[in-house]
Amino acid sequence: MVEISIAPASIAPSAGNGAERSSGTFRGDPKVSARDVSVFYGEKQALFNVGIEIADHSVTAFIGPSGCGKTTFLRCFNRMNDTIASARVQGEIIVQGKNIYDPDVDPVQVRARVGMVFQKPNPFPKTIFENVAYGPRIHGLAKSKPELEEIVVKSLQRAGLFNEVKDRLNSEGTGLSGGQQQRLCIARAIAVSPEVILMDEPCSALDPIATAKVEELIDELRTNYCIVIVTHNMQQAARVSQRTAFFHLGYLVEEDTTDQIFTNPKDKRTQDYITGRFG
Amino acid sequence: MSVLADESSVTGLAAVSAESRFDNPALMRRRRRAEVRFQLYGLLAIALGLSCLVILFTSIIGNGWTAFFQTSIELPITFDAQEIDPDGTRKPSAFASANYQKLAYTALYKILGVDPSIRPQRTAANALLSREIDSQLREMVTADPSIIGSTKKVWVLASGNADALLKGKIDRKLPQENRQISDQQLAWIDQLTGSGIMKKLFNTGLFTNTASSQPETAGLAVALLGSFYIMLIVVLLSVPLGVAAAIYLEEFAPRNRFTDLIEVNINNLAAVPSIVFGLLGLAVFINFAGLPRSASLVGGLVLTLRTLPTVIIATRAAISAVPPSIREAALGVGASKVQTVFHHVLPLSLPGIITGTILGLIQALGETAPLLMIGMVAFVVDVPSSPLDPATALPVQIYMWATEAERGFVEKTAGATIVLLMILAVMNIITMVLRKRYERKW
User: Fold this and answer.
1) For B29, B226, B333, B415, which has the most beta carbons within 10 A of its beta carbon?
2) Contact B331/A192, CB-based, under 8 Å?
3) What is the pTM of this model?
4) What mean pLDDT do residues A134-144 have?
5) Domain limits for position A175
6) Does a structural domain hold residue A201?
C-alpha cells in the first residue's frame, strides 16, 4: 500500500504541500481521480483545471459559495453534464483506472457505475418497489423475480427505509415524506450497486430530523461505497465527511482532511468562508 | 428622557404611523370598487356566454328533436300475386319491376273508403303516403317471396306533409288554399290518428338511411360511416406521426436554427385556413396520386394534415411539462435517453397527449371546407363499404341538408346537428375520463 499525498500540481495555488496528516489521508489507489478538468457552458468557463483524488470507503465533501462550480464538478463524475447541450468538459476523470471521457466509453454505463442523488427528492411517480427495481431491471441485474425482490429489499434496508415502508411497497413513492423520498432515492441509487455515489445537496430540501437520518445513512454507506457530497451546509460537511474540498469561483482552492480544513485552513479564502465572512 | 419612556414613545409613534400610513379611505374605496367592478365584468361575460349557449341549444334541440321521430301508418297490405308477379315466375327480375306503391295505395283507399276511380280523391289520398314505400315493400318481398298472396300489417312512412302536420309544423287554422294539406286530407289524418294506426315512431331511418330527395327517408348512414372512416384514418396516421415528431423535437433534436425553423412552421401550419388543406388534398391526393374523388380516404389524409400540427403542439407541451427532475432521476440510474423517454416521460405526458389528440380529432370531425374541396359533398345512395367508396361526412351532410328546399329538411338539419354535437360531447367525456385515469402527481 502506498500513501498518497494529495497535492496534484493542477490543484489551486495554496493547496498545501504534503504536511503530515494523521487522519483522512487515504490508503490504496484512489477510487476516482480528476485531472485538469475544465467545464464550459457555451463561451463561459465554469470550472478551471480542477484536479482531485477521491478515496474509496470515505465521504468527500465539496463546499463553497453558490456558483462556485462544485455541483458542475460533481456532475462531471457521471457525465451528467452531457445532458446539457451547451456544456463542454475538458480533462480526464478516471474511475477505477478508466477515463470516463474516453470516446469509447458509453455515458449510460458510466451513470450505472456512478450513482447520483439529487438536491430535490425525485422518486418516479411509481410504486416504492418499482422505484428501486427500475435500475436493476433495465441493467438486467436480476435473473428472476425473487432475485429482484431481494435486491429491492436489501437496497431499502441499506437505505434505512425498509422498516418504514415494508407494508406498503406497492404504494406510490411520491406519497412518502420528503426525508423518506430522499432515502428512497438513495435506495434507488444503490440498487444497481454503483462504485461511487454522488450526492448533490441531498438534505437541502429536508427538515432537520430527516437531515439527521440521511446524514446517519451517509455515514453508514461509507463502509461500502465511495461517496462524494456537495453541500451548502458546513456543519454537515464537518459531520459526515472525511475529506473536504473548498471551491471558489470555479477553482478548487483547497482540498484536505475535513479536520484540517475546518480547524487550520491554509488559504485565506477558505478561512473566510468557513468563518462566515462570505458565502 | 428615560430609556423606557423613549422606547414606548417610539413604539407608540410607530404604531400610529403604521396605521395612518395605510389608512387612506379614498384609496381603499377606489380599490374595493375596482375589485367589485372587475368581478362584475367577469360574471357578465360568463352570463352572456352561457345565455348564448342556452339560446343555441334550445333552438337546435327545439328544431331538431322531431327529426328523431317519423310519422308512420300501419297498413294491412295485400301482397297481390297478380300485381307483383303476374306470370308466377317468382324471379327477382319480376319482383324488381312490380309497382309496390300501388299496393300501399290500395290498402289506404280501403281504410279511408276512397273510391279509386275518382282521380282527385285518389291523388289526395296518395299524398298522405311517402313515395319511398315502394323500395320498403320490394325489399320485404325480395327477402321473403312467400309473403306474396298474403295480407300483412306493415308500418309504412307517411308523406313529408302529413309528418309536418303531426309535428305541428303546418298550421291547421290557415285557410285551405294557403295550407299544404287540404281539408279532406286533414279529416283523413284525424281519422287515422284517432284509430291509432297513424303515429310518430322512433326514426331509426335517420341513422340507417342514405341520401334521399324525400326528407322522410333521408338518413345519416353515409355521413356517419364517412366520418367514422375519416376519424379512423386521422387517428391511425396523426397520432403515431405527431407523437413521434413531438418526442423527437422535444427530447432528441438539437436546438439550432433548423429546428427553430421547423417549430415556427409547425405553429404556422396550425393556423393555416382549412380550405388550403382541401386545395392541397385536391392537388396532391386526387390530381397527382390519383386517389378517387369523394372518398373518405382522401378526406382522412387531408384532415390528418390538418390535425398533425395540433397533435404535435399538444404533445410537445405535455412532454415539456414533465419535470426535468424525472429525466435526471432516470438518467442517474443509468437509463438511456430512449428508456428515459419511453419508461418515464411518455407515460407521464399521456394525459396531455390524449387531451390534445382528442381535441384535434374533434376539430377534424367538425371540419367542412376541405371536404367540400375534395368532393365529399355528394348525393351518395350506397353505403360506403370501404374508405375508397364515395361518402360524405357529418358536417358536410348538415350543410347539404341545410341547402335543401323541402321544409322537412329543416328538422333533419337540426337533427343531424344534434347527432354531431352528441358525438363531440361523448368524445369530450372520453377525454375527461382518460385524463382523470392517467393523471399523476409528483
Assistant:
1) B226
2) no
3) 0.81
4) 92
5) 32-274
6) yes
